[in-house]
Amino acid sequence: MRIVKIFLVLLVASTPLIYMSMKAYIQKPSNDSAVSYETLSPAQQNTIKDPTLENLVKTTIENIRDQDFEALAKSVTDQTGLRFSPYTFVNDSTDITLSAEELAQGFTNNHVYNWGFYDGRGNPIELSFKDYYHRFVYDKDYANAKEIFYNPSGTRGNTTNNVLEFYPESFIVEYYIPEVGSTYEGMDWSSLKLVFVMESDIWRLIGIVHDEWTI
Length: 215
Hints:
It contains 6 helices and 8 strands. It has helices at about 1-25, 50-65, 70-75, 100-105, 130-135, 165; strands at about 80-85, 95-100, 110-115, 125-130, 145-150, 170-175, 190-200, 200-210. A hairpin with a 6-residue loop joins strand 3 (about 110-115) and strand 4. The radius of gyration is 20 Å and the shape is globular. The model is unreliable at about 1-45 (pLDDT under 50).
């Protein structure tokens, strides 16, 4: 009985430490490579070697923010299109790819697509482009994100980040917004990743990947 009491005392005393360790594990991104989630300072954010790409990155996030899909479509080719991934695992079987013409239609395109499956529930993500945009593209003000990463390869949540693997010759810019408050204990972070590739000596936008805490 004495041993049991001692065990219970130790268990109660260690509970806060266990909780804090779990919270830190949830919040801390993985550093499985030298470039995993390397934060860029404001000065470094403007050091992309190719000025054309630098300008494209800037105008792309602004066009997404402003819902200027005609302008956004000019950086997309009909041959490749623009792939939308609701989570950071790019899935060739379920992700929707819109052509430049379809993208230019913006919110006037009322077609309901199946964009994949909701994390945790497994229900199909059946949304119009407008509804998908508000849920899985610009659900937060990414244009004013304080943390920006280039070619991130690490995984924050429980969903595998295969973006670099899926787009091996790409340049990726991630706009990351950390947890907003203490209500969700670090599980309300999210990010938006823009994927660019060089096609016929011209930089093109080929992917928009949304990332968030997943079960």
